[in-house]
TrEMBL record:
Identification of the protein by name: Large ribosomal subunit protein uL4 C-terminal domain-containing protein
Highest taxon, organism lineage: Eukaryota
Comp. bias intervals (Basic and acidic residues): 231-249, 280-310
Pfam families, per the entry: Ribos_L4_asso_C (PF14374), Ribosomal_L4 (PF00573)
Residue intervals of the Large ribosomal subunit protein uL4 C-terminal domain: 149-222
Coiled-coil spans in chain: none
Entry-linked InterPro entries: Ribos_uL4_C_dom (IPR025755), Ribosomal_uL4 (IPR002136), Ribosomal_uL4_euk/arch (IPR045240)
Gene Ontology biological process: translation
GO MF entry, a single one: structural constituent of ribosome
């Protein structure tokens, strides 16, 4: 009974259209196994209100987007209802041409068909004999399987499989601590030689130096172009970058000189006589001059010393 409980909990999870289905799980008579014509199969699906799910498959048929087109997987479509039967008396031939509808024997249940893509809640149509055979195949949590040796149904760890509802319940939220919304990011070590922002933090003047280097490079390039043109006797066109830069420089020079000419000149400062030296400084200077004059006279008065005899 495990599969039916999953279907009852999540009946429309993969996108099945089952609003008009009379009951879930949908169990039909064994006479369905005797259907041999596709026309009869379509009538059956319409009667059980499952045809809208097949129409969804028709509308979803499209060409594959990737390289699977070249690998024999050109077209893709949605999944339709899964019919699980006990004995095939023509049922597989009747339903095989309806897109999206898949058949499966109850003795060979395939998890890839029951939950395609790992998504629970596949819309399944059971025949009565297949539905009754499940207890003999898998047993229950109290009685073991009759057809499989040493097989017991796995005991579920959770009584309620709606995990999102459990996590958001007030009883659990009151016990848990408050979420830590403060996120501490590790500091990134940036190389200032390759990262401009890191360099500007260390040296704000680096942007000025970089700009100056670019301007100097452009100026040298323009000067070289002008020098080569003059050497070769070629006149550069007016729209050449070197000519434009030269005109701009000349215009700027004229503007600066005109602005300097209009600027009023500062009046010349009046020359004032140096302050008279103080008496003490005059006396000190006179004494120093007397000492300097007396030194050469003393040297001349001293007799020359004779060299010692050997």
């Amino acid at each position: 009974m495990l599969f039916y409980k999953i279907i009852l909990i999540l009946p429309s999870y993969p996108g099945h259209i089952i609003e008009k289905i009379p009951e879930l799980p949908l169990v039909v008579s064994d006479k369905v196994q005797e259907i041999t014509k596709t026309k009869q199969a379509v009538i059956f699906l319409r009667r059980v209100k499952a045809w809208s799910d097949v129409l969804k498959v028709y509308k979803s048929q499209r060409l594959r987007a990737g390289k699977g087109k070249m690998r024999n997987r050109r077209r893709v479509q949605r999944k339709g209802p899964l019919i699980i039967y006990h004995k095939d008396k023509g049922l597989s031939r009747a339903f095989r041409n309806i897109p999206g509808v898949e058949m499966l024997n109850v003795n060979k249940l395939n998890l890839l068909k029951l939950a395609p893509g790992g998504h629970l809640g596949r819309f399944i149509i059971w025949t009565q004999s297949a539905f009754d055979r499940l207890d003999a195949l898998f047993g229950s949590w109290k009685t073991p399987s009759k057809l499989k040796k040493n097989f017991n149904l796995p005991q579920p760890k959770m009584a309620n499989t709606d995990l999102t509802r459990l996590l958001k319940s007030d009883e659990i939220r009151n016990v848990l601590r408050k979420p830590n919304k403060r996120v501490i990011h590790a500091k990134r070590k940036l190389n200032p030689l390759t990262n401009t922002r890191a360099m500007l933090k260390l040296n704000p003047f680096a942007a000025v130096l970089k700009r100056k280097a670019l301007l100097d490079q452009a100026r040298r390039r323009n000067q070289r172009a002008l020098a080569l043109a003059e050497k070769r006797g070629v006149k550069l066109p007016e729209n050449h970058p070197a000519m434009k830069a030269e005109k701009l420089r000349e215009r700027r020079r004229k503007t600066i000189s005109a602005a300097m000419a209009k600027k009023p000149k500062k009046p010349a400062a009046k020359k004032t006589a140096p302050p008279a030296p103080k008496k003490k400084t005059v006396e000190k200077a006179a004494k120093k001059a007397e000492k300097k004059a007396a030194k050469p006279a003393e040297k001349a008065a001293k007799p020359a010393e004779k060299p010692a005899a050997k």
